């Protein structure tokens, strides 16, 4: 059938008269040009863009050009002044030039190369591209979606077509490098994206919807796993067309693995599949939707479930492609596609190559089903009562143990029926749903044109309510879900009088009930029969307000735009008084007042859901510890930890309260205490629904009154906390940063506006810092040619970091010492100047990251957003028949610093003890990121004493284990104590590859009394030297570690590889110690077939070899704890070993209990291995097999138990984590 359709289409294309007549009687009213992967020039030209300029009338406003991503090769748009910026600008300008000065519109959609090919800093690159496009000042050119948001964004085109833009790379980008919860994106997670797309599809049932994104859902090119014989024999030709170096077999590894499993940019990858399935579930079956994409450097048309899929990625490159499932056409040549909409509602998809002589020369065309005719519907609205009595949420009723564990909280308030006015929809128009993390919200237009928001009282917890590190953690999500009962359901009703008294702008929410009203339209299913709050969307007296993106743009564009910091402080102090913890950046709008030359912006709080949040359960109390989710510590007279309580606004406060002094903070806090009188507090709480007055209202009133006694002290401690490191920001205009180091260890920082002549004018910022409070000041010049002047007294303890930013900056330092207190960062590709006789340390680089600025740290692991130093406890438990029960405890302390990712330092201290053998193990690990230039500093110490115990059955691959002896396995135990210390420097090459090397010291000692009547003394049998067996041995040498780690998760990997290679060479430091070396390498491969990873295949292969004169405890060991399950630990010892392990890890189910919610599953395994020993001619391989189960009560914890069977019998093991 497909072949017949292709023949008919080709015949129609060849018959120009047919199309000509069709066009005359049914003219084209909208034509969309689709060009993907257009991001490179050829000899300074762009063949596709040149064709479009020549053959298309871009003064015709019915023409629309869509660039489908990868708009700039190879890594997107670097900052101005960075290497590659000029070429990136030329590439983008060439594409824009097609419509420059014309009436037609052009839309850019981001691709993976615009996101820096998925590498760190990709989000900033795509924002750079958007900023450049905006800076062109062309009203007909835009990048959508903006700010790195995922979309969807709908753009109506005429009355018959709608363009919907999505950023598919957002789905595939590392979560740490894309906007999330704290951004102002309309959609922040996959659910809200899908819901928004459903709304758009429902809004335009009778229009042609063109869904534009970079990644295709179906393709038979390279990203779909298509490789020819050429790639198997000459794989290097994909990197360089001239590298015809034959690599048979080896060359097949990459195409086969990529074709089967795919990297994240391939359709076979689970994350890619998840994206496709989520979106396709919305669009399938809709014949009025065409999905268009680039990514593959080909031209393809496919059809599946009545939806056409266009691949038009041959804008500047050509790659291989074939016909396959769902294919209608596939070509490997430069070109583009169009979608033409006719007046009748009929449309067709057409494909062109650059050899065509005009728009009548498409080499392929396919007709699209006509648009469905609008269906006339009538809405019958029933009669609704004026008010109803309804329960907010009845799911929080719980028994005694549940209340003890997770808290009594406000469960009664949630389950008590309250009276609410029924919302009358007459004259109101639903617009769009909101994208909150817990709250259903609907934007709605009033009869007078004002915009309001309906926010559901009932909460729905998603991953976005959790810190990034806990995403996917069902245990914590369940606690947070039940923790909704800790939120006072109608708290927002009591905030307006408190805010009014402090002069803080506020909404005026009303409690309403939304009936099952057909006028809700496509939102009826979600919002009908919903108890909700109705409040103004723009609570600033109805005036226009700005979101966070807008605010940041205003501050960056012009230094005449400023923040009203006293007003901001008042708003934040109200948050802290009522202990509303959920005050991240997207919880605010910004009201602008003209200040003469610019705007003064003040905050307008919104979404007041969390005042009076309490936390009184035993487990909830633990979860709210400083090392976990400390913002959930709850409403109380005195905060447990005011620093952790303010986790959500941690960056907000540091950015918008950076100029105020301690006196201003104290005065404002004391004003709050004075304003919050007994009568005001009581009146505010009486605004709660009368039905709940008899429960917690009196306790809340009493707590608010009691908070006044501790409040000022809390506020001042928080002021000191956020003043330890202070950032001061410039703009893209020119500024002078004046730094005056004063005697008495103080620093005055003034920032002035620079005029065109370079003279200082208006003072923009001024603050005096004292070293006992502020340890570090960071001055960000941002764009423009800025000046930095450091002068005054020598000395001082406060570090001043100057981050020049884009532009040719001037640095003048007159302070001579110490150099480490003044640090300058900028690009070495710019024409910066350095003057003065002062001492400083310069960090100049060609990497734009040296100037990176992320004020809010939306990126979960951003080095520039604030991170707390964390001291966290550690516990461990394990069992094996040789050691019995092993229990351990310790702690880990993590600190953060400037440009240190993922941390500045991490120290781990642990101790473990065997209840059976009485052995102890003490470990210390230290890691400092980029401690010496780009090198990390590592240090490890391990003490296995006293009573360290291993098994020794002798050397060789066929050693005997007498299971029936009187002592059993205990006869083969050997005790010795060991001390191992090393220090290494590590170089990281990206996120995957690292190499570390450094000196090591070892000390071993044995006591004959501890080994009495053991096999270790049978030296005539075991091959040991009786004369030197119990001599102390000391070594010094070096150790090298090489690691390739591409696992998607350290604890529960489901995809990726881990390849660790270690080499150590040691020389003896006494007469009993002889030189020896060890080389070990093992490679683990993890494979799963979907993002749920219900089945994971884990493979590991390893090899090791000793060189020189080594002792028995330095041998290569095979055993159940290392690599051969089903045998005792250290079962075989030799000079060389090899092993292979394979696991099938199956997730059986997820479960929910109050104590251990999580998931569990089975493990099936098979291990094989052997050792070699000099003088032995063994050919035997040892095989172990078995199974067990695993349980994961926390996303960061796995407990596994297994039983393995080998030739010596069976061995059971219980441990934290998997075997590998």
TrEMBL record:
KW Nuclease (keyword) present: no
Domain Bacterial surface antigen (D15): 972-1200
InterPro entries, sorted: Bac_surfAg_D15, Metallo-depent_PP-like
Record-linked Gene3D superfamilies: 3.60.21.10, membrane protein fhac: a member of the omp85/tpsb transporter family
A Pfam family recorded for this sequence: Omp85
Record bears the keyword Membrane: yes
One Gene Ontology term, aspect cellular component: outer membrane
Name the UniProt record assigns to this protein: Bacterial surface antigen (D15) domain-containing protein
Organism: Puia dinghuensis
